[in-house]
Give the backbone structure.
Amino acid sequence: MKAYRKLRVEKIREGTVIDHITGGTALAVLRILNITGHEGFIVSVIMNVPSKKLGKKDIVKIEGREISPKEVAEIALVAPKATINIIRDFNVVKKEKVKLPDIVKDIIKCTNPSCITNSPEPVKPVFHVKSKDPILLRCYYCGTILDKNAIIKQF
Amino acid sequence: MFKGRDIISIRDFSRKEIDYLLRVAKKVEETPEDRLKVLQGKIMGSLFFEPSTRTRLSFEVAMKKLGGEVVGFSEPALTSIKKGETLADTIRVVENYVDVIVLRHPLEGSARMAADYASIPIINAGSGAEEHPTQAFLDLYTIYKEKGRIDGLNIGILGDLRYGRTVHSLTYALSLYNDITLYLISPEQLKMRREVLENIRDKLKFKEMLNVEKALPELDVLYVTRIQKERFPDLSEYERVKGTYRITLSTLKKAKKDLILMHPLPRVDEVDVEVDKTSHAVYFKQVKYGLITRMALLGLVLGVF
Ligand SMILES: [Zn+2]
């Protein structure tokens, strides 16, 4: 029990801790960050921890890697309540909540095969955020609504 | 309010704007033809990437009645599209020749993209399975003309409420009006989608029902749509359902005297031809109202009304 606890709360020296990830979506977050495990740095993934706020939450700790604003926006799509903690020398130097923008441009694809954005036309997929919780995106071009499952599948 | 504006989806319009369009349409209808030549010297580009003869005729005649000219194509087969030109390029070429573009295209969202590229107004005449806004405008104009108002009416919509895009656009448009009760009449498997109902829930009263008999005495308007065979995996089920949703003289016995019966056309046999000669039938008048609505719209986006 002691070893288990120690492993779970192990601190990292430099890097990022993503906390309050919607339970069960940590692997999608890793895909967003293009982390496969072959990069060599330490990655801890903790899934389905009981959480007062979320019921169940996931936590991802990445040693030696900070994440970009674009990645933060993408994480917001699959884990709208996530918090990003930037760690330097064992201390949290910056803590931010992910924030879903009102318009999601060129991140995910429309699921409607007849949508103009899935054709060779020079047009990027654009979605308007119809609802943040539960997340619903509406394609600006064809009106198709994407829910959480349709979004997670794309990462 | 409309000058230079793209007409892409009914959802882009407020009640105030729609009411204004309906009033302009009424004025157009009341103006003698020889005084309507307000678009002389203007050219409409009619770009039909898939055939839709009715809609195309309606737009082209509307432009001509206003004194304007029409260029374009009704089949992409002979155009550079076959050589692989994108719609975005076609739009940027054609907009140099014309004052307004009416577009029909098989891909959903195509009109929205065309509007992003063009500096002249784009009017959506159908993009993929999406309904085009002028159908909803003409449906509203029909109700407004025939009933004198839209607020406060009991409106039945019958048939394929699940897949019928015309129905979704009309439902949305009606949700902008006050004190409307919608009677949504369809077989179980063609009921209105939950997400459409969620969007209108706070805006109007609606009742879902499986057959028209009970609702009929209450209705001021009955909008009939076609139930397509392809929606039924089991053909015998289709045959059974078809009869139930067919409007005949005997169905109409319990109707209010001034009930109007609408249909987006083309009709197959969901409204019996015997009904055509009753005062209820307004579906052929809808064609005329469509022409007038499109005249109003062309004049508005080109800034002459
Ligand atoms: Zn789309």
